[in-house]
Amino acid sequence: LTFIISEKSNVLEGEINFGVEGKTHPLNKGDIITLEGNIAHDLTALKDSIIRLTLSKLDHPERVEKVITNS
């Protein structure tokens, strides 16, 4: 999964593995990770989790829908 613009993910609850270009980063409640655009990444919840994903307003709904459809 990649986004054209920068992204910030904030773990509000739970525990996840956040993969970035083949490396796994364990994240827990309170952790934040930011990425520039066009960086491949993935997320695996290790337990029930709540994640806040922040994207730029410059993004377009059509692109997001296409990512969801192709996932």
Give an account of the 3D structure.
With 71 residues, the protein is mainly beta. Helices cover 14% and strands 48% of the residues. It has a three-stranded antiparallel β-sheet, with no helix packed on it. A hairpin with a 2-residue loop joins strand 2 (15-20) and strand 3 (23-28). The longest helix has 10 residues, at 61-70. The chain is globular, with a radius of gyration of 12 Å. The mean pLDDT is 83.
Name its key features:
71 residues; mainly beta; 3-stranded antiparallel β-sheet; 6 strands; 14% helix
Described by strand count, sense and barrel closure, the largest sheet is:
3 strands, antiparallel
Structural class: mainly beta
String of helices and strands: EEEEEEH
Q: What is the number of strand segments?
A: 6
Please mark out the parts with pLDDT under 50 across 5 or more consecutive residues, or reply none.
Answer: none
Strands side by side in the biggest sheet? 4-1-6
Helix content: 10-25%
Query: Proportion of β residues?
Result: over 45%
Distance between the termini: 8 Å
Oligomer: single chain
By DSSP (H or I, 4+ residues per run), the number of helices equals 1
Shape: globular
Radius of gyration, rounded? 12 Å
Average pLDDT, to the nearest integer?
83
